[in-house]
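Tokens for chain A. Residues wanted.
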């Protein structure tokens, strides 16, 4: 079809070139005749027709070549399309954990689930294979497929959004903020901070929209090292997710599916307490404190900003934490927030006097922030929390 369409301009250019060439030749003959009789003649009509004939000749040549090769995007398109699709899948699999945004990030399914054609060729091989697998073999993990869309560039970084399946099997939204260094250092892997929300079915950035500006300013001022911020939806089924987290640490929004998705999609350090922390601001502060105290095996540090805490419940949560490393907790409040500072000091005292792992928690209180407006104080508190978390976690490498 493409070649047949090119024939029309090819014929037009050829006919136009012939007409202009004949006109130029006729003008040239007229000039020769005028010179014979020593008359002055105008050369411009001849030159213009000659130039037009040359342009038509170039066009005829180009169109002839294009028609012969089937160009204009029609060259081998039917043959190349499958290769391009195949290479896109290969790249998605090869770049697990690398930046592909916004685009499909994919972790390939285990080889055992690819094709039933890999069965043993003989009857003797089948029992051997069954014995090797064992009746108690764990089922293969499902493929992790997530599509992250860019939704903005707050704080100098990039904010992306997607959905992952929660423990209840229902999709839940998740937002990921990549620091500016993520694009500037394409080979670096970054620690991760999970930010908890206080309302069900909401992400923390919707409650504290200026959190990215606070973290971004801490990075610009050199007061913090870069990290990736992940904001999953708070657990559903209760109007107070932070109380749910304190009572049942299994309700922490940072579950295995979320961690697997983040690790497979972005360039992160391996999930561990050395590289993952948690943050909560205002209503989400008790969630961060509960998550850090309940799961020191997941979070290496927790920062709670301007929160109000149930000291008795959090102390019991900390006492029932898995044996191992001690929780590291920052409780920050503005100097003028007397209620917040009082709640922080009560929690610190309760943990220190608490049983088991609660007494081992390392609790720091920040009470030195003072500014003209509550918004500016919150911005400075978020900067302090970012600095605390960056210092407690491994740096990007």
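Reply:
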């Amino acid at each position: 079809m493409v070649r047949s369409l090119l024939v029309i301009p090819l014929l037009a250019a050829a006919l136009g070139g012939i007409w202009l060439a004949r006109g130029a030749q006729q003008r040239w003959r007229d000039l020769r005749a005028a010179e014979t009789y020593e008359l002055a003649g105008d050369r411009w009509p001849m030159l213009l027709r000659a130039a037009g004939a040359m342009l038509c000749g170039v066009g005829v040549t180009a169109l002839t070549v294009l028609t012969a090769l089937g160009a204009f995007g029609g060259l081998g398109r039917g043959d190349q399309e499958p290769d391009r699709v195949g290479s896109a899948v290969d790249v998605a699999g090869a770049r697990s954990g690398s930046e592909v945004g916004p685009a499909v990030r994919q972790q390939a399914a285990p080889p055992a689930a690819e094709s039933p054609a890999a069965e043993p060729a003989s009857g003797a091989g089948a029992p051997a294979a069954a014995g090797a697998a064992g009746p108690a073999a764990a089922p293969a993990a499902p493929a992790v497929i997530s599509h992250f869309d860019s939704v903005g560039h707050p704080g100098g970084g990039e904010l992306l959004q997607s959905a992952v399946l929660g423990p209840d099997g229902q999709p839940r939204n998740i937002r990921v903020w990549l620091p500016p260094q993520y694009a500037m250092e394409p080979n670096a892997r970054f620690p991760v901070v999970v930010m908890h929300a206080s309302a069900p079915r909401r992400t923390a950035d919707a409650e504290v929209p200026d959190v990215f500006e606070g973290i971004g300013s801490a990075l610009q001022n050199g007061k913090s090292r870069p990290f990736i911020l992940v904001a999953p939806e708070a657990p559903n089924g209760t109007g107070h997710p932070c109380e749910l987290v304190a009572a049942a640490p299994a309700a922490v929004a940072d579950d295995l599916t979320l961690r697997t998705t983040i690790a497979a999609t972005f360039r992160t350090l391996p999930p561990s307490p050395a590289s993952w922390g948690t943050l909560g601001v205002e209503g989400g502060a008790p969630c961060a404190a509960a998550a850090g105290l309940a799961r020191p095996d997941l979070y290496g540090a927790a920062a709670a900003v301007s929160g109000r805490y149930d000291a008795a419940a959090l102390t019991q949560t900390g006492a029932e934490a898995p044996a191992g490393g001690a929780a590291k907790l920052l409780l920050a409040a503005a100097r003028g927030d007397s209620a917040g500072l009082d709640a922080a000091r009560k929690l610190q005292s309760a943990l220190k006097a608490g049983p088991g792992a609660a007494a081992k928690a390392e609790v720091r209180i920040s009470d030195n922030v003072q500014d003209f407006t509550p918004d500016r104080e919150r911005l400075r508190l978020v900067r302090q929390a970012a600095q605390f978390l960056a210092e407690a976690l491994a740096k990007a490498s």
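The radius of gyration is 34 Å. Residues 71-144 have pLDDT under 50 and may be disordered.
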